[in-house]
Design a protein that fits this description.
alpha/beta, five-stranded mixed beta sheet, six-stranded mixed beta sheet
Length: about 210
């Protein structure tokens, strides 16, 4: 999504057609085409940066026009609310004018369990990139959707005024490196990786 090439994740239950969307940063019309034939249960947000949330409200509005069940926007932690309220300004600083502030129906907290018809996610607060960053972990499918905390071979930026590098590393070790090696990591940018790969080879974590 967007010129920043942020990964938006769509998880579909092929038996029911029900789906979740994680971090719709923009390009809502294109996303609506991809989601054609699915019933979206919720939109999940890992953190408040514009390239991850700038299309959330537009996607919810588009889905509301074509499905009878409501779509909730869930997450991140409330400590990112100041970023959600400044998406338009963030985006315009990058020359993007079609992204908008996001308005979650529910802010999540560390340890919360989100249950949907096709999946169950544990929420883990992992600050450092932003104060309210969370990751979503599905133990049944050995899957971690981690936003901008952990990437293949690197970690997320923490050089913002509100960033905390030591906190980021501690959070990754606490919430992600505690998982088994065979868990798949879906980052906010770039290619997927595995917990074991990052445990062994990520120079920021050794």
């Amino acid at each position: 999504m967007t010129p920043l090439r942020q990964n938006c994740t769509v998880l579909e239950n092929p038996e029911t057609g029900q789906a979740l969307v994680v971090d719709p940063g923009g390009d809502a019309p294109e996303l609506l085409k991809i989601l054609d034939g699915m019933t979206v249960e919720a939109i999940l947000l890992t953190h408040g940066h514009f390239d991850h949330v700038g299309g959330a409200d537009a996607l919810r509005e588009g889905l509301a026009r074509r499905q009878t069940t409501p779509v909730c926007i869930i997450g991140p932690d409330r400590r990112d609310e100041f970023l959600l309220n400044s998406v338009t300004d963030q985006a315009q600083a990058f020359g993007l004018f079609d992204l908008h502030n996001a308005h979650p129906d529910h802010f999540v907290v560390d340890g919360e369990i989100l249950e949907f018809s096709g999946a169950r996610f544990e929420v883990a607060h992992c600050p450092g990139h932003t104060p309210g960053h969370v990751v979503f972990i599905c133990h049944e499918d050995k899957l971690a959707i981690v936003g901008d905390t952990l990437f293949r071979g690197v970690v997320g930026r923490s050089d913002f005024a509100y960033g905390d590098h030591q906190g980021l590393i501690a959070g990754i070790k606490r919430t992600l490196l505690s998982l088994p090696d065979d868990y798949i990591v879906l980052p906010g940018h770039g290619l997927p990786t595995m917990i074991g790969e990052e445990r062994q080879n990520n120079p920021f974590l050794n």
